[in-house]
Design brief:
CATH topology: Aspartate Aminotransferase, domain 1
Number of strands: 6
Radius of gyration: 14 Å
Helix content: 25-40%
Shape: globular
Order of helices and strands: HHEEEEEEH
CATH class: Alpha Beta
């Protein structure tokens, strides 16, 4: 599925350095999650598989944060826990810090390891593993 125009617009609205990071992330994510729905969700680019959020990124004050909703289950040293559920993140201040091999490996794990975030409200905050 092509990268949604709103995501391309989001990337274009960033500073030159952050745009390079966002473009590299969106291109690699889109390439390795074929058929995933992608859109702006809660004001940030996010990719979904069967309605479940998988990966996204956002511009923070001093970096671009890449977030994997199920990333704490990946057992990857390059990802740090984020929040009180299963999410994990990597932060970038330069495109040179984006290691495509790591990102490809994380995306493969994101397909294989998923927690059911799309049903979290229905389950009153309880996560269940999908895959």
């Amino acid at each position: 599925m092509p990268i949604h125009k709103d995501i391309r617009d989001y990337n274009a609205s960033q500073s030159a350095g952050d745009k390079r990071i966002c473009d590299a992330l969106s291109k690699t994510i889109d390439q390795h999650l074929p058929g995933a729905e992608n859109k702006i969700w809660h004001r940030h680019p996010v990719w979904f598989l069967e309605g479940n959020p998988i990966v996204g990124y956002s511009k923070l004050k001093d970096c671009v944060r890449l977030l994997f909703w199920s990333g704490q289950s990946f057992d990857e040293p390059g990802l740090k826990p984020e929040g009180s559920f299963k999410a994990a993140e990597a932060r970038y201040t330069s495109k040179d810090q984006v290691t495509v091999g790591d990102l490809e490996r994380w995306l493969k794990k994101a397909i294989e390891i998923q927690w059911d975030y799309k049903s979290i409200v229905k389950r009153k905050g309880k996560l269940e593993r999908l895959k």
